[in-house]
Prior knowledge:
The protein is α/β, with parallel strands linked by helices and 326 residues long. Helices cover 27% and strands 18% of the residues. The chain has helices at 45-57, 76-83, 99-108, 123-130, 135-147, 167-173, 202-212, 276-280, 286-294, 321-324, and strands spanning 12-16, 62-66, 89-94, 113-117, 151-158, 180-185, 215-217, 226-231, 237-241, 254-257, 262-264, 273-274. It starts with 11 loop residues before the first strand and ends with a helix.
Amino acid sequence: MLFDNFGRIHDYLRISLTDNCNFRCTYCMPEEKIQCLPSSRLMQKDEILSLAKTFVDLGIKKIRLTGGEPLLRKDFGEIYAELADLPVTLTFTTNGFLLDKYAGLCKTKGLKGVNISIDTLDREKFFSITKRDHFPTVWKNIELMIQMGFDVKLNIVLMKHVNDDETEDFIALTKNLPVHVRFIEFMPFDKNGWDKTKVISFEEIMSDLYQKYDVVKLLDEKHDTAKKFQIYGHKGTFAFITTMSQPFCGDCNRLGLTADGKIKNCLFGKEEIDLLSPLRNGEDIENLIRMSVTRKHAVMGGQFVASYLETDAQSIQNRSMIKIGG
Length: 326
């Protein structure tokens, strides 16, 4: 088992398959042109499987595949199929554009649920955020996944004066659809234009909702990052991931593996340890994994511990979200 120096167990691994994406959301990808890594510097299929098996042997029970956009990998189907045979809960996060291509495989291999990033329900605004006119395709694929019986979570990064006027529109989806809407507070990463004034906090939204709706607080399970709610009588639920206003570091059980094979013990941490090079050299990586876990900071990667209202984004050393794995 993997324990850090604060007694936290780590049994959840996020594996980034690529640092490329077919969307251009600025909160994830810097506005200036970025250079994606060449294939030779990315983890190859067999390397991903080998690393995943090592992590499972060390106690990992859940694996989430991320990117960039993980479905852009030409070998995504092969990677998913092989990882699905491991004794873990396997899922992935996607922008939804290519989901129809893999829905059948996911059903065959026992996928329970999928996270789909969609920050607006308005086609024009969707283009403004993603720089792609793909809303109809994404929404069609969301409906497909619901029809096929998957547990669908919709991830919405809330940003003031961008999509904060759509919170009730998203919550309205839960009336007749069994979807789980999750609002994510805007987080600072390299060159993503983060500013404290753009953050819409959990408290701001909930104060209005309690006045307008019969809101029921649902039970949050151990290690949950989302505070879950439901409107009485609705089929679906909604939740808030309060990374900035109410961090959940004290119960964190997550580790990350970047597309180029670096282990990150915190999304906000600047420290990374290379696992891919030692793996290719035939070296032992278990000790490197344990070393990374023991070096984990108590709060927010050791980079900011005060209120987000006092956070200086320019002082944070990190990669962009697309380079980390969202």
